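hey
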């Protein structure tokens, strides 16, 4: 058994392991090439987050999905590069919107070069992704455009907040379907489609990707609170400090509203305080880690991961299907 990729996927088949490792290496080479510019400054900014690492979760899914057709088909690796470039571009824009100082353990692009450079670098990466897509055909361009529309819609919904009377948890999950689920769904779709897999397989892996993407983000929500390490790529409690209400916080608020518990209401009030104070931040983290709301978020993560696993049932048994099931296990493991 070997571990493939930073997410820690266990692969038991040597041929699949070799294919996947070779594919990920080719993706890295493609990313390096796609982020080069005749202007050295642009190259440095465009490669800043790429060189900082990352899980390469989306390219990995492309490569595994391609196993249900011809994994060596010429469009597989370029489509994996496209989804990762798109993901990287959104990180540059997200950090500007969130006024983040750190990403993947290094200074964010906006902290290092300012908001304008960060936004324009994200645009540069989108442009390079579009250039690669043009060689993959009009259907690939259409699929990417639809996914990008969903991604942006999710971001706008997050910014606007829940509409009057809408359940904040329902709204949050809607946001994740667009912001995260859409691009992970495209990863499964591109891999199957570019490999020439049957349409039924393409549909299955698209739906699988959407659910897995949501589970992956919910696992990050749990990690942000539960982890004492940097497993999530961020300092624990970063979302809390930045005032971002992730699923555990939303569950806490719902419980406080439903039960009227004085302790829950007090914790909700602490969440609105200035959590730049390390002592207060540590106290809030400690109390959230012991709160049932965190376990509720874990159960939601498990539910989406199990829904993703269930989507795979019609696929033929084999190493590729086992690896996709392993991705579900890896996501659940991240959430504890």
């Amino acid at each position: 058994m070997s571990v493939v990729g930073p997410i820690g996927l266990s692969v038991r088949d040597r041929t699949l392991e070799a294919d996947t490792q070779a594919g990920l290496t080719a993706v890295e080479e493609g990313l390096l090439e796609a982020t080069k510019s005749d202007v050295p400054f642009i190259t440095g900014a465009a490669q800043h987050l790429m060189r900082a690492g990352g899980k390469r979760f989306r390219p990995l899914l492309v490569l595994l999905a391609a196993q249900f057709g011809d994994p060596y088909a010429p469009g597989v690796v370029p489509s994996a590069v496209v989804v990762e470039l798109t993901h990287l571009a959104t990180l540059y824009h997200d950090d500007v919107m969130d006024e983040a100082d750190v990403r993947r353990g290094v200074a964010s692009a906006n902290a290092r070069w300012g908001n304008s450079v960060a936004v324009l670098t994200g645009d540069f990466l989108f442009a390079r992704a579009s250039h690669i897509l043009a060689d993959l055909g009009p259907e690939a361009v259409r699929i990417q455009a639809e996914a990008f529309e969903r991604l942006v819609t999710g971001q706008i919904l997050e910014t606007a907040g829940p509409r009057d009377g809408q359940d904040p948890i329902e709204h949050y999950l809607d946001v994740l379907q667009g912001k995260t689920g859409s691009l992970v769904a495209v990863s499964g779709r591109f891999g199957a489609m570019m490999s020439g897999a049957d349409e039924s397989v393409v549909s299955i892996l698209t739906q699988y990707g959407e659910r897995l993407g949501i589970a992956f983000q919910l696992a990050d929500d749990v990690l942000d609170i539960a982890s004492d390490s940097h497993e999530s790529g961020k300092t624990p409690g970063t979302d809390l400090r930045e005032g971002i209400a992730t699923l555990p916080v939303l569950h806490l608020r719902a419980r406080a509203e439903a039960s009227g518990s004085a302790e829950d209401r007090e914790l909700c009030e602490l969440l609105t305080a200035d959590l730049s104070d390390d002592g207060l931040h540590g106290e809030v983290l400690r109390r959230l880690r012991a709160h049932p709301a965190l376990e509720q978020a874990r159960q939601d993560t498990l539910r989406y991961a199990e829904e993703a696993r269930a989507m795979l049932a019609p696929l033929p048994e084999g190493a590729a299907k086992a690896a996709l099931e392993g991705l579900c296990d890896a996501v659940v493991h991240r959430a504890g």
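The longest helix spans residues 199-226. Strands lie at 2-4, 9-11, 102-103, 106-107.
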